[in-house]
Design brief:
Radius of gyration: 20 Å
Largest sheet: 4 strands, antiparallel
Strand order of the largest sheet: 8-9-3-10
Structural class: alpha+beta
Strand content: 15-25%
Helix content: 25-40%
Shape: elongated
Order of helices and strands: EEEHHHEEEEHHEEHE
Distance between the termini: 27 Å
Oligomer: single chain
């Protein structure tokens, strides 16, 4: 059940995943609400919801880090953990070597069991440990969160006052109908700015509007 405040709005708690610094929303978990149920969030008369989100943001980030337009999960896993195709150590940034990873934005997270030695009939073999999956997700997810957050911080106060929700790939706002084009333009400009920490990377966005959160086109 959603708790609605006296102002007619829902007020969730924003936090971050401790492993990847990915944005998390709880009490209630708004981003886990199925799209078909999001129509319960309706704009007041004379207002409209607006949204600007990145297109395949984490895919673009993985492509940037690997210098490839596409990259398999296995290839990305090898890059982060620091193993090449023969199972030997490489000089790539590896959470298993230093025990931590640093994002291009300076965010640091420590990992304690990325690779583990397991004894087998053939001897000791190197296997992925419990932190391997978190290490793989760290760079793209923390960079995605930072890009969205910084874009929102750069908005003017007037545009920020229309914001209602930040997600891992974009932002959602509510404004008067006469201001929606301006809000979309400001948000798009900030989100599509080149990111100097990522070598000037630009990720395309898509903008939508609608009478409710579940009816965005």
């Amino acid at each position: 059940m959603l708790h609605v405040g006296a102002d007619g709005c829902v007020h969730p708690v924003f936090t971050h995943d401790p492993s990847t610094l990915c944005l998390r929303i709880k009490h209630p978990g708004l981003t886990t609400i199925p799209p078909r149920l999001r129509t319960i969030f309706r704009a007041p008369a004379g207002h409209v919801f607006w949204s600007v989100r990145y297109v395949d943001l984490e895919t673009a980030l993985v492509g940037h880090f690997t210098k490839k337009s596409t990259c398999s999960v296995q290839a990305w896993h090898k890059r982060v953990t620091g193993l090449d195709d023969t199972g030997n150590y490489t000089e790539q940034e590896g959470a298993h070597q230093r025990g931590w990873l640093r994002s291009p934005f300076g965010n640091v997270h420590r990992f304690f069991d990325v690779l583990s030695y397991v004894k087998s009939p053939k001897g000791w073999e190197l296997h992925y440990g419990p932190d391997a999956k978190r290490a793989v997700a760290f760079l793209p997810q923390t960079c995605a969160r930072t890009m969205v957050t910084r874009a929102a911080q750069r908005l003017s106060v007037e545009a920020q006052n229309t914001l209602r929700l930040l997600t891992n790939d974009g932002m959602l706002g509510l404004c008067e109908e006469r201001h929606v084009a301006w809000c979309l333009l400001r948000a798009t400009e900030e989100m599509e700015r080149p990111v100097p920490e990522l070598g000037g990377l630009v990720v395309q966005t898509v903008a939508t509007t609608g009478p409710s959160w579940g009816e965005m086109t």
